[in-house]
Specification:
By secondary structure, this protein is mainly alpha-helical. It folds into two domains: about 80 residues; about 120 residues, no CATH class. About 80% of the residues lie in helices and about 0% in strands. Helix 7 runs antiparallel to helix 8, helix 7 packs parallel to helix 10 and helix 9 runs antiparallel to helix 10. The N and C termini lie close together (about 10 Å).
C-alpha cells in the first residue's frame, strides 16, 4: 500500500498500542500481587489505585508513545527541528533486535504440550487472535463502509501475531509467562497462513 498504507497503519498502531498497554497494565495489576506491597494493604484494596497508576506511568511503551505524540504536536506547532540521525538510527537498531530477542526468550519458555492442547488456554487465545478477531474487525469495517486500503490495513493489523512485548510484560509483571510465550509462538507461525488466506478472500470479494 506504499506511503498511504504506512500512514494509516501508523495512526492505528499508535492508538491501539496505547490503549492495549493501558488495559494490559490494569489487567495484570489486578490479577497479580505486587511482591513489594504490604499484604495487609493489598487485602484491604488500599494500594490498588496507587499500584496501577505507578505501573501505568512507568511503562516504557506508554512513556514512549506519549513522548512521540508530544514531540509531533510540538514539532508541528513550534516548528522544531527533526531528531538527530544518531537518535533515529539507534532507535531503528534497537527496534530491529527487539523482536528476535523476545522470540528467543519466549522460545526457551514454550510448553509444547499446553500450546498444542486443543482445550487449553493457549489454543483458545490463539484462535481468538488469528480467527475471531479478524472476522470481527472485518464486520466492523464493513459496517463503517471501509474498503480498499483502509480495510486492508485494518485486516492486516488485526490478523498480525501477538506482540512480542506481551511476553516481556507478562513476565515482568508476574503474569503467566509460559502462556504468553505459547500464544506468541503459535500466533507468529499460524498468522502467516491466516493473513495470506484472509487477504486472498478479501481481494476475491472486492473488499480489499
Amino acid at each position: 500500500y506504499g506511503t498511504e498504507g504506512l500512514s494509516i497503519g501508523a495512526v492505528y498502531m499508535g492508538v491501539i498500542t496505547l490503549v492495549f498497554n493501558i488495559l494490559a497494565v490494569i489487567t495484570l495489576s489486578r490479577t497479580t500481587v505486587d511482591p513489594e506491597a504490604d499484604p495487609k494493604q493489598v487485602a484491604r484494596h488500599e494500594n490498588y489505585a496507587v499500584m496501577i497508576s505507578k505501573k501505568l506511568f512507568t511503562n516504557p511503551l506508554i512513556l514512549a508513545l506519549i513522548a512521540a505524540f508530544g514531540y509531533k504536536i510540538l514539532a508541528s506547532t513550534l516548528e522544531l527541528p527533526e531528531l538527530p540521525s544518531v537518535i533515529t538510527q539507534t532507535g531503528a537498531l534497537l527496534a530491529a533486535v527487539s523482536l528476535p530477542l523476545a522470540l528467543i526468550c519466549a522460545g526457551a519458555t514454550i510448553d509444547m504440550r499446553s500450546m498444542l492442547n486443543l482445550s487449553g488456554l493457549s489454543m483458545q487465545a490463539s484462535i481468538g487472535r488469528i480467527v475471531i478477531a479478524p472476522i470481527v474487525a472485518i464486520l466492523v469495517g464493513l459496517s463503517f463502509g471501509l474498503t480498499g486500503v483502509h480495510m486492508g490495513v485494518l485486516f492486516l493489523m488485526v490478523a498480525s501475531p501477538t506482540a512480542a512485548a506481551s511476553y516481556v510484560m507478562a513476565k515482568a509483571m508476574g503474569g503467566n509467562e509460559i502462556l504468553a510465550a505459547n500464544i506468541l509462538a503459535f500466533t507468529t507461525v499460524v498468522s502467516l497462513f491466516g493473513m495470506a488466506i484472509g487477504a486472498a478472500a478479501l481481494r476475491a470479494l472486492g473488499w480489499m
